[in-house]
Amino acid sequence: MDAAKLLASRQEKDQFFRSHAQSPLTPEQQKVFNALRYYDPNPALEFTLRIEPIADGKFVQIQTTTGDIRMMKRYGHFTFPVEGQETTLTLYEADYGFFLPFVDANAGQETYPAGRYLEPEYLGDNRFHIDFNQAYNPYCAYGDGWSCPITPAENRLSVAIRAGEMIPLGDWVTLGQSQE
Predict the structure, then answer these.
(1) In 3-state terms, what secondary structure has residue 169?
(2) Cβ atoms of residues 139 and 7 within 8 Å
(3) What's the pLDDT tens digit per position in 57-77?
(4) Helix, strand, coil share (%) of the chain residues, nearest 5
(5) How far apart are CA 110 and CA 125, in angstroms?
(6) Is beta strand 46-50 parallel, antiparallel or unpaired with respect to 127-131?
(7) Phi-psi region of 83 (alpha: psi -120 to 50; beta: other; left: phi over 0)
(8) In what order do the strands lie in the sheet with 127-131?
(9) pTM of the full structure
(10) Nearest-angstrom CA–CA distance, 145 and 156
(11) In Å, how far from its chain's centre is CA 104?
(12) Cβ-contact 66, 90 below 8 angstroms
């Protein structure tokens, strides 16, 4: 995605969070929400890659932040460079399409500690468009009322993915957390 389209989609997302009835934010959060935080567009983290299918194609249980279990199929692996280091992730297939959860080395400092998500675009012939500039936080990053898949251990990276959405900061975030 070119930078202008990416920036426009980010503005649309901010507007959705700020004013839409289906925003993941509570009405109290929406009143003080300013914007999500993002890394600058990083063309080095946008790829068209061939996935190496996983032969057994087993379904695995992925726990959520509320203790529920979601079943997803381990679809395949792919390797890509990050600042000169080869990195591998596992792509999952869910009932709604392809799902790529990951935690990077900046988790808890610059990125959401539980990880970020992508839905790579299938191009056919086991090829996918994977753009980390579109990586987003799960809704549980904004408040306690959401159930989000927890990133499996195999997708916890030792490299930083400096693209996409960053950890949310601001008074609006704390309004979404229970005060127990």
Answers:
(1) coil
(2) no
(3) 789 999 999 999 999 999 999
(4) 20, 35, 45
(5) 35
(6) antiparallel
(7) left
(8) 46-50, 127-131, 121-124
(9) 0.92
(10) 24
(11) 11
(12) no
Quote the CA–CA distance of 161 and 102 in Å, as a whole number: 9
Query: How many CB atoms within 10 Å of residue 54?
Result: 15
What whole-number distance in Å separates Cα of residue 110 and Cα of residue 98?
25
DSSP letter (8 states) at residue 41: P
Please enumerate in sequence order all residues whose Cβ is within 8 A of that of 58, keeping only pairs 6 or more positions apart, or say none. Answer: 73, 74
- 104-153: pLDDT as tens digits: 999 999 999 999 999 999 999 999 999 999 999 999 999 888 999 999 99
Nearest Cα neighbor of 90 from 138, 139, 49 is 49
Among candidate residues 94, 88, 78, 104, the one with its CA nearest the CA of residue 164:
104
Contact 80, 47 (CB under 8 A): yes
